[in-house]
Specification:
Elements (H helix, E strand, L loop, with lengths): L2 E6 L8 H17 L9 E6 L5 H11 L4 E6 L5 H8 L2 E4 L11 H8 L4 E4 L14 E4 L2 H12 L7 H14 L3 H16 L6
Parallel strand pairs: 1-2, 1-4, 2-3, 4-5, 5-6
Helix pairs in contact: 1-2, 1-5
């Protein structure tokens, strides 16, 4: 079966679809050259969302004639989105922060479904994605292509790196809000509260 990679977007310039398209072309060439390619699809990329840049990206995909990569753009209901994340092998985040300070909620969604993430590296993303542990970071199209290619080697029978990252996501991000509040915020607020009169 092909590796299922999921990304979500609002199709705005905050995400570099040119970088993604370049990486997909390079990855397809790597797969064509490698003995592991054989026939058929090796990677299924599903991108969810609506927005102004979607049609241009779809045209780029059609004209690329990718042999081993299938790309689908879809709009999913709020109920179906977490199901897709739960079925995926890897999340993809192209978000870059104009301020360099905000973190993408889509990665939080992916981690909530115990999905490791391949993300663009920018100033504060390491606060959320631990490179090599809960996901992988990339800075340009060749890095993205080569990281995907390394994960595709031997897939689906050889998926140790993906499985290890998934376990790490569960260990690090498996704490739910109420438990995190009880462990972190509640003791702080309790220490700041004035003592109750006796």
């Amino acid at each position: 079966r092909p590796m299922l990679v999921v990304s979500s977007t609002s199709w705005t310039p905050d995400e570099d679809f040119g970088l993604l398209m370049s990486a997909l072309r390079e990855l397809d060439q790597l797969l064509r050259s490698a003995s592991l390619s054989g026939d058929g699809c090796k990677l299924q990329l599903v991108i969810t969302g609506k927005g102004p840049l979607r049609e241009g990206f779809e045209e780029s995909v059609r004209s690329a004639c990718l042999a081993h990569i299938r790309v689908q753009t879809v709009w999913l209901s709020a109920e179906d989105y977490p199901r897709l994340l739960g079925a995926a092998d890897l999340g993809l985040c192209l978000h870059t922060s104009s301020s360099g300070l905000d973190l993408p909620m889509k990665v939080v969604d992916m981690f909530g479904c115990e999905l490791p993430v391949l993300s663009v590296d920018y100033r504060c993303i390491s606060e959320l994605v631990a490179d090599g542990q809960t996901g992988l970071l990339f800075s340009d199209a060749p890095q993205l292509a080569h990281k995907l290619f390394s994960l595709l080697r031997g897939f689906p029978s050889e998926r140790e790196k993906l499985d290890a990252m998934r376990l790490q996501v569960a260990a690090v991000h498996g704490v739910r809000w109420d438990a995190a509040w009880g462990q972190t915020a509640a003791p702080l607020f309790n220490s700041l509260a004035p003592p109750e009169p006796s």
